[in-house]
Amino acid sequence: MNFYLDLHTHTLVSGHAYSTLTENCHYAKKIGLAVLGTSEHAPSMPGTCHEYYFSNLRILPSHIEGQRLLKGVELNIMGQDGSIDLDDRICEELDYCIASIHSPCFYSKDAKVNTDAYINAMKKSFVKIIGHPDDSRVPIELERFVLSCKEYGVLPEINNSSIASTSFRVGAFDNVCMLLELCKKYEVDVIFGSDAHYCELIGNFENCMRAVQKVDFPLEQVVNTNPLKIKKYFKIEVE
Ligand SMILES: [Zn+2]
Ligand SMILES: [Zn+2]
């Protein structure tokens, strides 16, 4: 299986990751990834970088170590209204934005509140991906969530790290399988993300594939494998 891209990766500047951007690019090139996306945690996450980091991404070249690079961010959803923690103008200049719920920034046990938060974030045109909607500690109304992804053209992420044995997220494998079942039923595309916090975890989608195989999810709906869908969602060509 050829996975063309991985858009959910972190570097040292996120504060709890362990490789540099150059090391990430070097590894991505080595494993033959067509496109690497870098997506540090936005400023409300404890230990991460300042907003200047994101506005200054414009100085980076489009290729590092010969690796095609997209410049993104993993935004924090800050409340039920879907507000996020980086200026809209900065978000609009980036290649893509992931929006996620992280408990240090926003926390609710109420599935309606969490679903409202995700859907309100989806309404922002620069939000292309909802990160790891798979944690039983952050319950959601799954069917309403999936139908909204379809309505707003936003990709739910199948997060490889959530399903890993080292994950602190709860119930992720079962939640991902339920999510994939509904995405299959309603023909909603999904994206795999490694959520790598170390370079050698980039492009590793083994756990995502276990879930896909369990529910017999159609691989053409996995954007990472499908050049036409990559072009549709991210306006880039891959070979
Ligand atoms: Zn992180
Ligand atoms: Zn995250």
Short characterization:
With 239 residues, the chain is α/β, with parallel strands linked by helices. The protein has helices at 21-30, 51-55, 88-93, 111-122, 142-152, 160-163, 172-185, 206-215, 227-234, and strands at 5-6, 35-41, 63-64, 67-76, 96-100, 127-130, 155-159, 191-193. The protein has one domain: TIM Barrel.
Bound molecules: zinc ion
Main β sheet profile: 8 strands, mixed
Give the termini separation: 14 Å
Shape from CA axes?
globular
**CATH topology term:** TIM Barrel
- Helix content bin: 25-40%
Search tags:
alpha/beta, TIM Barrel, 8 strands, 33% helix, 239 residues, single chain, binds zinc ion
Write the layout of secondary structure elements.
Blueprint: E1 5-6, H1 21-30, E2 35-41, H2 51-55, E3 63-64, E4 67-76, H3 88-93, E5 96-100, H4 111-122, E6 127-130, H5 142-152, E7 155-159, H6 160-163, H7 172-185, E8 191-193, H8 206-215, H9 227-234
Parallel strand pairs: 1-2, 2-4, 4-5, 5-6, 6-7, 7-8
Antiparallel strand pairs: 3-4
The structure holds zinc ion (2 copies).
